[in-house]
TrEMBL record:
Domain Hemerythrin-like: 13-125
Highest taxon in the source lineage: Bacteria
Pfam families: Hemerythrin
GO molecular function: metal ion binding; oxygen carrier activity
Name of this chain's protein: Hemerythrin-like domain-containing protein
Family of this protein: Belongs to the hemerythrin family.
InterPro entries with a match to the protein in the record: Haemerythrin_Fe_BS, Hemerythrin, Hemerythrin-like, Hemerythrin-like_sf, Hemerythrin_metal-bd
């Protein structure tokens, strides 16, 4: 599997949040190789770090949103909460049965979620934070 690659299109215009996103990508990318996907110690450590770092990052990002009076803050926070719950469920399933979840499954889910979330939701907030205007729908 190919690792997630940071691109300028992922930037939200906030250096701290962009750095957090890079760290999250690095954490998820630890599960992009076949060897790591089959190593229970790597899977467990990655899930633990991902849970801890997403909590840190989501708190910081949500604080920025509240400060900016972001109009869709509640919906964005709900997305954060859903991801946190899903990764916690992966960890619980893994700890209960190390065969119950694969590192590949975790990587695919997190890579897909993270890429889509940053490119769609977080960049929308970045645009709002820079302009004070909600992103306008094109159509």
């Amino acid at each position: 599997m190919e690792p997630i690659q940071w691109s300028r299109w992922m930037s939200v215009g906030n250096d701290d949040l962009d750095e957090d996103h890079r760290v999250l990508i690095e954490i998820v990318n630890r599960l992009c190789t076949e060897a790591s996907q089959h190593d229970p110690a790597v899977i467990e450590a990655t899930l633990d770090e991902l849970i801890a770092y997403t909590r840190h990052h989501f708190a910081a990002e949500e604080a920025c949103m509240r400060e900016a009076n972001y109009p869709t803050y509640a919906a964005h926070k709900a997305l954060h909460d859903a991801l946190t719950r899903q990764v916690e469920r992966y960890r619980e399933t893994f700890l209960a049965n190390r065969e119950g979840i694969s590192g590949e499954e975790v990587f695919i889910f997190c890579a897909d979620w993270l890429g889509k979330h940053i490119l769609k939701e977080d960049t929308r907030f970045g645009e709002y934070a820079m302009t004070g205007e909600p992103e306008r729908a094109v159509g």
